[in-house]
């Protein structure tokens, strides 16, 4: 079955360390996204990619980096420059461009990152 | 103004009550998703809608494209339905999320 996989579900890191969150999909989707959620807040867009080897900054890209070397993979690195990295991170994927007959989107389970 | 607005923000109800959560959006969309997030847990996709109505167990989702509005209904609510319910719309170039509705069902 096709799907999107985020790993790990829970992640602990020491302050000052970079950490990379994994997101893999086998849905042949062109577009992939990373979102951040803080307690009691909505999901905010960090980065998105609509094609391999290309990605765009979202609303809160500072302190994060991404790569899209393969269609199925869109890893997110939380760098030491991110001031408040503790949060819930969600990956999603969808076809692109959207067509009326194919508007699915799939969502990962999320990764809860805690920096101590 | 947010492009996706959910109401209410918080909802507490007694077990067995009929629950309605609303989502309004201001942009043209291709589809809309309803998602569920349990405390400390991950995200589960409940429905994807581009028109009409869908039903799964005690959950019903409707969408009115002309009015730019969707509702999620829960019949015979149960404490295990307590979660945050999130509306997400697929616009032409990205997915936009509402802030979520926190639902608490009391036994």
Give the SSE map.
The complex is a heterodimer of chains A (116) and B (107).
Chain A: E1 4-7, E2 10-13, E3 19-25, E4 31-37, E5 43-51, E6 54-57, E7 64-66, E8 76-78, E9 87-94, E10 106-107, E11 111-115
Parallel strand pairs in A: 2-11
Antiparallel strand pairs in A: 1-3, 3-8, 4-5, 4-9, 5-6, 7-8, 9-10, 9-11
Chain B: E1 4-7, E2 10-14, E3 19-25, E4 31-37, E5 43-49, E6 52-56, E7 59-64, E8 69-74, E9 83-90, E10 95-97, E11 101-106
Parallel strand pairs in B: 2-11
Antiparallel strand pairs in B: 1-3, 3-8, 4-5, 4-9, 6-7, 7-8, 9-10, 9-11
Query: Largest chain interface and its two residue counts?
Result: A-B, 28 and 21 residues
Total helix count of chain B? 0
The computed structural class of chain A is mainly beta
* Low-pLDDT ranges of chain A: none
Number of strands of chain B: 11
| Structural class determined from secondary elements of chain B | mainly beta
Number of helices of chain A: 0
Distance between the termini of chain A: 37 Å
Percent range of helical residues of chain B = under 10%
The residue-averaged pLDDT of chain A reads 90
């Amino acid at each position: 079955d096709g799907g999107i996989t985020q790993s790990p579900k829970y992640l602990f890191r020491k302050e000052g360390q970079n950490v990379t969150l994994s997101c893999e999909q086998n849905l042949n989707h062109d577009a992939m996204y990373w979102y951040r959620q803080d307690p009691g807040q909505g999901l905010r867009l960090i980065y998105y990619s609509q094609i391999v080897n290309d990605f765009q900054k979202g609303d809160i890209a500072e302190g994060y980096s991404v790569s899209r070397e393969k269609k199925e993979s869109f890893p997110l690195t939380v760098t030491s420059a991110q001031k408040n990295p503790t949060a819930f991170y969600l990956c999603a994927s969808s076809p692109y461009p959207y067509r009326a007959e194919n508007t699915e989107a799939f969502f990962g389970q999320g990764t809860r990152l805690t920096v101590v | 103004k947010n492009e996706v607005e959910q109401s209410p923000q918080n909802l507490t109800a007694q077990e067995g009550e009929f629950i309605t959560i609303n989502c309004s959006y201001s942009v043209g969309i291709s589809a809309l998703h309803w998602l569920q997030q349990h405390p400390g847990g991950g995200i589960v996709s409940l429905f994807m809608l581009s028109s009409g109505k869908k039903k799964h167990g005690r959950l019903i989702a409707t969408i009115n494209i002309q009015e730019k509005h969707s509702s999620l209904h829960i019949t015979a609510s149960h404490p295990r339905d307590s979660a945050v319910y999130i509306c997400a719309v697929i616009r032409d170039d990205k997915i936009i999320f509402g802030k979520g509705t926190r639902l608490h069902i009391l036994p």
